[in-house]
Specification:
By secondary structure, this protein is α+β, with helices and mostly antiparallel strands. Helix content is 42%, strand content 18%. The strands form 4 sheets. Strands 4-1-7-8 form a 4-stranded mixed beta sheet. α4 packs parallel to α6 (177-207), α5 packs antiparallel against α6 and α7 packs across α8. The longest helix has 31 residues, at 177-207. 33% of the residues are buried. Pfam families: Redoxin.
């Protein structure tokens, strides 16, 4: 995954905490007046490598009271979202917190307040929401500077951070020193991460389209980017983002090839990145770095490289907390290799007939996973309709689109509005839908090409956007 696209995936992890070992529960009680829903929902993520949010619900009684307890990682601060209807509050919780929250749904942000163990931190975060917005709004303010010159961009980021630190100075006198250090570090590492993103994002902003061709001048922002490594900040999500892109960005600025495909030059870049990580990073940061890199690339690079990286990781960190997730990802990478059987699933054919994917043996099958909220999915399905399908009329080729929308009716309606033809599968459950799980789908759109024997034809098939390559790939199989 190249840097320009990684930003969109990485930002899904901004609520991630940094430890998987649980201590005692957090207790959260509350009273909401003028309620707009019958419950509150608690969500947070405890997986550094992926976004699998944990959810807890608490009903409100007729007086608007609720109570809920849930486990959080030990000895770190975890960002938690409390939702009531359309209202959202951020909390930074640690094990042992016991809180009571009071809020009026008619003026939610300005009315919310906390008492109990940990309340100083939560009232500080609530005040931040009121004055500065939610934490991720900082990234939006940074993006407003992306069109500026490298010099002005760096000045803009520094001014944004100064305003955040000034807020902490005004309101943080009651905060624990460790929390204040972690909180302020978030904005420092957000800046570092977006400095890494600047070369490509600035060019894309300038030409108004995606590109990997980046002028050398754009990399001037990297000159002052420090090696600010500290395992204490593994609980700070922006620190993880900073780690994930640092070495690759620097090497690209030095002229290394962009790893769009699994070419020899791309492998040279990735091997160099890993060597720098092993050499320069402290133990915990290095463990995370290699783990997240392998997790992101296990399925999209030659399986031989993934096997080698995984073996080296297990040798270096035999008791790593990331090993279960990495083993699962490696198992999936092996299952999705060319020549392996494609998992079976139900398919509704264009004539309404219900069949199994295995019933289509003897034909080439191109499978597309999508949802209505994925704009790229919708755009590429339209592209497939215009540029690909007609080329295989009366050929032993089938196109199967798999919607993982929770709302099947909306998916069917959009399909009709776009005039999509072919065979469709509707399976609710989102990422947890059985078909999505069996194919290891964790990003959309996702494509799979199955040969006439029912096996995966290639490990990474072209998308409809690469229509010429897709036409050639399919034509080779029948």
């Amino acid at each position: 995954m190249n840097i320009g696209r990684r930003i969109y995936c990485c930002l899904l992890l901004l609520l991630a905490c940094s430890c998987s070992i649980y201590a005692q529960d957090v207790v959260l009680r509350g009273h909401i007046t003028n309620r707009t829903s019958d419950s509150v929902r608690i969500t947070y993520n405890t997986d550094r490598l992926a976004y699998y949010p944990k959810e807890f619900y608490a009903p409100l009684d007729r007086n608007g009271n609720f109570s809920v307890s849930f486990p959080v990682p030990a000895d770190v601060y975890t960002m938690v979202e409390l939702r009531h209807g359309n209202h959202l509050a951020e909390l930074m919780l640690t094990n042992g917190d016991s809180l009571k929250v009071i809020a009026d749904a008619r003026r939610f942000d300005s009315s919310i307040s906390y008492t109990g163990s940990g309340s100083d931190i939560q009232n500080f975060v609530a005040q931040h929401t009121l004055e500065r917005g939610r934490v991720n709004q900082y990234t939006m303010r940074i993006r407003n500077h992306i069109a500026e010159t490298p010099e002005d961009y760096l000045k803009g980021l520094e001014n944004e951070k100064k305003e955040e630190l000034a807020f902490t100075t005004r309101h943080g006198d009651k905060l624990p020193a460790r929390f204040r250090r972690i909180w302020d570090a978030s904005f420092t590492y957000y800046n570092y991460f977006f400095i890494e993103q600047y070369p490509q994002m600035h060019e894309m902003q300038r030409i108004r389209r995606y590109t990997d061709t980046i002028p050398e001048a754009n990399y001037a922002v990297l000159k002052g980017l420090p090696d600010a490594f500290d395992d204490e900040y593994l609980q700070v999500p922006p620190y993880l983002l900073y780690l994930s892109g640092l070495f690759e960005t620097r090497l690209r600025g030095a002229g290394y090839a962009v790893p769009v495909t699994d070419s020899a030059n791309a492998r040279k870049l990735l091997d160099s990145v890993d060597k720098l990580a092993y050499k320069l990073l402290p133990t915990g940061s290095g463990e995370y770095f290699i783990a997240q890199s392998l997790y992101a690339r296990a399925r999209v690079q030659y399986i031989e490289r993934s096997r080698a990286v995984f073996a080296a990781f297990r040798k270096r960190w035999p008791a790593s907390q990331y090993l279960p997730a990495l083993q699962k990802e490696m198992d999936m990478a092996e299952r999705l290799q060319a020549g392996q059987p494609a998992p079976d699933m139900n398919v509704t054919m264009a004539d309404g007939k219900q069949v199994r994917l295995s019933d289509l043996k003897g034909k080439v099958v191109y499978i597309s996973f999508w949802t209505t909220w994925c704009k790229q999915c919708v755009g590429e399905l339209r592209m497939m309709e215009r540029k690909v399908k007609d080329m295989f009329a009366n050929k032993p080729v089938e196109f199967v689109t798999v919607s993982i929308d929770e709302d099947t009716a909306t998916a069917k309606l959009l399909q009709q509005q776009m005039g999509l033809t072919g065979n469709f599968t509707y399976t609710t459950g989102g990422w947890y839908a059985p078909a999505a799980q069996s194919y290891g789908v964790r990003a959309l759109p996702a494509y799979f090409l199955v040969d006439r024997n029912g096996n995966f034809a290639v490990t990474q098939p072209p998308s409809p956007q690469r229509s010429t390559e897709l036409l050639v790939a399919i034509s080779k199989l029948y």
